[in-house]
Amino acid sequence: MRRELRAVIAPAYDGMEVKAYARTVMKISSTLLNKMKYSEGILVNNKQVFATERLSAGDQLLFLLPEGNLSENVLPKKGELDIYYEDQDLMILNKKSGIAVHPNKGHESGTVANYLAEYYQQNGMAASCHLVNRLDTGTSGLMVIAKHAYAQERLAAQMEAGIFVRNYFAMVHGYFAEKEGRIEASIARPDAATIKRIVDSCGKYAATNYMVLKSTKRASLLRLWL
């Protein structure tokens, strides 16, 4: 079943076009609005309309989101998914270390995306796999998966605004004299073919805050946030 977004038009928006209401009030992107337009997914008072339709106060506006789907290159594979939370819009997974997020060279199957494809298939779900935050293969922790494009757009906007906050814990070598600090450096690839990153003046600016939670002379446990 297609995900529904409903709204009752307030007097302040009387006379506004559907597309303007969608973009300014509901924060629906032009790309997603076009997909709904071509999939008969814009209705006012249960009647299909164009995006240029003008709204009246009290109108019942309904958007039917396109059904989600996974890439044909992501084959279903049975595997363990530690689901921390799930609803019709998103899923929060607790990813284990050693599992890649999506298929790539060296990890063609047995990834989070493959396991999700199997999970969706077994539960009869027409959902997508929009990765709101990614974790490296060797990193464990919570991952947010948006099940459709609108959820991905809203969560991405929250991340951009600083509402969606990511915290990490890391064991590192050495002792920190300062218990809190901020690391600012430019990060770049040493070459185009590698996933490694180095500090380089030609790279992209990055800032990471840290707090020392525990430490010895040889190692420290840090909380990190971007």
How would you describe this protein?
The protein is an alpha+beta fold and 226 residues long. Helices cover 18% and strands 31% of the residues. Strands 9-13-12-10-11 form a 5-stranded antiparallel beta sheet, with no helix packed on it. A 4-stranded antiparallel beta sheet has the order 1-4-2-3, with no helix packed on it. A 4-stranded antiparallel beta sheet has the order 5-6-8-7. Strand 2 and strand 3 (47-48) form a beta hairpin. It is globular. The protein starts with a strand and ends with a strand.
The shape, in one word, is globular
Number of beta-strand segments: 13
Query: What is the ordering of alpha helices and beta strands?
Result: EHHEEEEEHEEHEEEEE
Strand order of the largest sheet: 9-13-12-10-11
Proportion of residues in β-strands: 25-35%
- Total helix count? 4
Low-confidence stretches: none
Q: Report, as a whole number of angstroms, the end-to-end distance.
A: 37 Å
Mean pLDDT: 91
Structural class: alpha+beta
Rg value? 22 Å
Helix content: 10-25%
Largest sheet: 5 strands, antiparallel
Output the keywords.
226 residues, alpha+beta, 5-stranded antiparallel β-sheet, 4-stranded antiparallel β-sheet, globular
What's this entry about, in short?
The chain has 226 residues and is an alpha+beta fold. 18% of the residues lie in helices and 31% in strands.
